[in-house]
Amino acid sequence: MFIIVRHGNTFEAGELPRRIGSRTDLPLTAQGREQGQALGRHFAAQGIRFARAFVSPLLRTRQTADAILAHQPAPAARAETAGFLREIDHGPDENEAEDTILARIGKDALAAWDTRAIPPPGWQVDPEARLSAWRRLFAGETDAGGPVLLVTSNGAARFALLADRALAEGARAASTLKLPTGGYGVIGQGEAGALELQGWGIRP
Fold this sequence. Notes:
By secondary structure, this protein is α/β, with parallel strands linked by helices. 39% of the residues lie in helices and 15% in strands. GO terms for molecular function: phosphatase activity.
């Protein structure tokens, strides 16, 4: 089982949100830290013990992973940095407000990103490299022997759903690839060992 978590909030209540990616390394807010704690309590209450944990290099994801793993029974898995989980680079739209971005690229381009992971002009993503990394993970190159925790960002998480045909079909039914802050998705095994999307956009 793979549990894919999006980091907690990085903007304070009332603060204008911006598109932050790989070049903007913000910490979690107090609410974001509490979201991480809530996720940790949630998984522990379900009896989920992570065999391995992977995290992007960014501070906000590492803080979220640490909060989750703090609720695991000892000895808990240690968070391992994985480059393919790093958030994308929004190019000219990095650290810009949504209205500014929409004025530059338009609603259709943003919708294509949220539903099909087609990068808007100027965004630096390398979809094939990201898809390949998820496929290697799902193929068992990371032999965990139990549930795997992956803590990442919204732009990176969506490629998990596109790395497998069955997962992509589940994503189409959900009509969005986005994960909310402090939310998670679950990818498990269905019949004959096939990957199965068991939940997406879940918040404790």
